[in-house]
Amino acid sequence: MPAPEVRPFRRADRDQLTDLVNLHVAAVAPGVSVSVNTVLSDLERQPGEFITDPWVAERTTLVAEQRAHIVAAAHLLRYRADAGVGEAYRDAAEIDWFVHRPAASLWPDADRAADRLMRACLAQFARWNVRVRYADGSLPAPLVYGVPRPWPHVRAVYERAGFRHVGDTEVILIARVADLPVHEPRPGVTVERTLGECGTRFTARADGHALGFIEVGTALARPERHARAAGLADIGNLHIDPEQYGTGLEHRLLAHAADWLRLCGIDRLVAYEEAAATDMLGLLTGAGFRELTRTDRGWEHRPG
Q1: Structural domain includes residue 287
Q2: 262 domain residue, yes or no
């Protein structure tokens, strides 16, 4: 079998690259896929990353090709070194995402291609002469960030290259809206709907005081980018006054959110929590959520 060729991405690669991206998305997010337009747009800018994207000074995408097939790809970012960039990102470079076909009978040299592509990524970092090197797996699709557990082949490439997980682990949970709590009136407690920071907010109040709130976002996919994520929403914020723990307030908020989501045609709701947040994880699983996957955020190049 011919050795894989590592080269810059060309527009003619767009369909094969999108197929490879969608293979990785499908292993994490049920029923989600992205279009060619979404992938190409992501290579140029990431409007959803409204804090960090303006800090990017340079972007490059590399692919590994074998027998006229794209078997691996990586998208690299270099951040500016000026004072206008956040300290952690200042003069940094990042593998924004890295995808490759796992080794199989059809692609027995897939690991070799991935390692060769990784060497090219590190060589680009060396040419950029940056202060620190990061890695992630933030594909342009809902729920896909960090290094998700369904990607052991990507994790292995990162670890062989000297990247280490130095950040947090997050749990991604999912529930069918039909399985969420049913609305039951509670004397003295009202729930109002307003615009929140991360979506539509439902706030429970009693005697003029806020007891807690939940925010749900129904725009996980930017319509103009044509990501297939219909029927999917997420919890952007969930806050319960500690004095209300054990009163079932979270079930009441989720019930109001569920009523709203059904009107929106949403049938699945996603939540994110740090693995260490055992109380909140217990609250969510007790309300109808189940663990979808875990993802490890924060990878840094620390060879040796």
Answers
A1: yes
A2: yes
> Token pair for residue 179?
């399985």
Rounded Cα distance, 282 and 290, in Å: 10
Q: Into how many domains does the chain fold?
A: 2
Q: Which domain holds residue 115?
A: 5-161
Picking from 161, 185, 203, the residue at the C-terminal end of a domain is 161
- Statement to judge: residues 271 and 123 lie in one domain: no
Mean pLDDT split into 10-residue runs, the chain, 304 residues:
89 97 96 92 92 97 94 98 97 98 77 96 98 97 96 97 98 96 85 94 93 91 57 92 81 94 94 93 93 98 86
**Are 178 and 263 in the same domain?**
yes
Do 218 and 273 fall into the same domain? yes
Give per-residue burial for 6-35: e unless 16+ CB within 10 Å, then b. beebeeebbebbbebbbebbeebbeebbbb
The verdict on residue 302 lying in a domain is: no
Instruction: Tell me the pTM.
Output: 0.92
Closest CA to 270 of 225, 218, 207, 193: 218
Which helix (H) or strand (E) segment is 111 a member of? helix 110-128
Q: Which of 254, 253, 298 is nearest to 274 (CA)?
A: 298
Tell me how far apart the alpha carbons of residues 253 and 130 are, in angstroms, rounded to a whole number: 46
Buried b (16+ CB within 10 A) or exposed e, 218-239: bebbeeebebbbeebbbbbebe
Residue 223's pLDDT is what?
Answer: 53
